[in-house]
Design goal:
two-stranded antiparallel sheet; disordered N terminus; 703 residues; mainly alpha
Length: 703
Amino acid sequence: MSKRRTIKKETPTRISKSGFLSNQKLHIITIGLLATVLYANTIGCDYTWDDAIVITENDFTKTADFRGIFSKDTFHGFFKEKKNLVAGGRYRPLTLAMFAVEYQISQKPFIGHLLNIIWYALTGIVLYLLLLKMLNLQKDPDQTKAWFIALVASLLFISHPIHTEVVSNIKGRDEIMTLLGALTALYFALRAYYEKKIGFVILTFISFFLGLLAKENAITFLAIAPLVFYFFTKARLNEGIKYTVPFFAAAAAFLIIRTSILGADFGSTSTDLMNNPFMKIVGDKWVEFSFAERMATITFTLGKYLQLLIAPVTLTHDYYPRQIDIMTFGNWKVLLSLFAYVGMGVYALMRLPKRDIIAFGILFFLLTLSIVSNIIFPIGTNMSERFMFMPSVGFSIVVATLLWRLGRFLHEKEITSFADLKGVVAILGIVLLLFSIKTIHRNLAWKDNFTLFSTDIKTSDNSAKLLNAMGGELTTRALLLENKTQKNAMLSEAIIYLKKAITIHPTYANAYLLLGNAHNYSGQYDTAISYYKKSQQYKQGYKEAMNNEAITYREAAMNCLEEKKDVEKIPGYLQEALRGFEETRRYYPDYPDLDANVAMTHRTNGRYYGEIRQDPNQALIHLNQALKYNPDDTETLRLMSLCYGLAKQHDKMIEVLEKLIAKQPDSGILYLNMSSAYYEKGDLQRAEELRQKAYQLNPGLRQ
């Protein structure tokens, strides 16, 4: 019978201060350098995804309106009105203020990407310093366990590919700053406890308050902070309370400010599938999931998070419906996830009295995950990889501790260097290498919107939101193509994606709008109009659909006019166009280019009556209407001059041509037309002078 192996009780071990394992300066350099190397290829990336909401299309950011940034919902500057994009609103002024400053320095995305890398590296460094403080190196400056866990956890955190969404997307700064603020606050709180200096108490308050101003998720540290004092210090209850007071004070100040600006709604239920993934169609109505369906779907996503942390093989920025399908507790993946979380919870509670660091890591993970889990309140989507940014700290702590324990198991003697942990270091090296390769490769997807959408559509091929975004991006890119065949091919591809989006989400107003646009640009005007009407059916007062429908009616009329077919439809098309523009004006009087669009519609009407109906008097009525909305439009003036000529009103024709010549003094055809007007009046000398002037400006007119 073999002798049973016994494991010695873990005791602090001393190592050489000159070795890498205990070299704090080298550790910090390694963490910072790793972050820089992994994300260096993002510096050349463009603005992508949510950057438009907080940077490129946010009026507060672009104009550095700090009063607006700190006194309004974060998305107010994008929507230009009071509107909550998701339940409860968002108040995250710190990162918006940072973006505003950066945008004034340069409108290029370079500076935003560079600063994301710097702040991310700093977050990893602060995590490292915090872990050293938590594991209390002051007790034994050469404690191997503390050095190992702090360094390994920080390296795992920095290299994890699930963070690419946060770092590669400039908007992800809110995730970085909120975690940085919270971790820094913990670090200062521990220093306040050990060094008894009031300055660190004040710094704790400031750091945590700034973290909250970056994103509300930092609020979970109200539970994390007491756990840190319980697990890693010998503080009595009153001492623990004393040093966590700054966290609660900062949270109270933040909530007072937030409530005064956004109100007390912290998460109401939306009936829009894009803001509430727990909706389904029954018959022709949207209804909420049953309680069992909702909880099973949430449980599945929680399991998906674990899978992505352990094996981040397939990543995507989009998990909107129905990328995550409706789940039931009969699904084995749901049950596996449930058992995993129950197991983690039971282990953490059982080991709580032992102050087991793995139990702490699990509780850190669960507590920071809770706020984005959809269990406490709705967050507007099933899941997102950026939501793992904060919980992944707990994951990294657990993995680092497990590796340490494996190393202790494999090496019974005293550990004095990394050489004593050869097996563990080999495992760690392989993991870091695989994580790094995946991170660098994944960053490439964030080059621009088209690259991101076309990459992730292969993974999130059942997300209505991504299908819609892909269709919209293809439509936009199609307009840049000069080759008509290529343009129509790209528009056809866009239509395929958009139709799949409305198959998943039959009342998706924006998808119908984009379908209207794609058909409009491909010359299928009647089909485009039908989609615009659908869009307005599912979103009352949808100004873009309303305005685009009116434009399409006018373009349909112009197409008939150009091709001289179905000309009998032109008056009806133009009447509908004018009605649409006036309806848009009634609801949105400041909508861009309304006057220009109305003027163009009247001008088209004038052209129709002049060219098709040969009725210059009726044509002039519409052309005069066009001039009321756009007095300087040269094309309207040109058409008026022709109509006056057709109506034998030569003096008025000359008057209009003089206005045109004042605007276009080098246009030979205008002089030739005026020559004709004088000829009809009988002023042959003036007619000849003008004709010669026309030939002088444009010799080709002699032919």
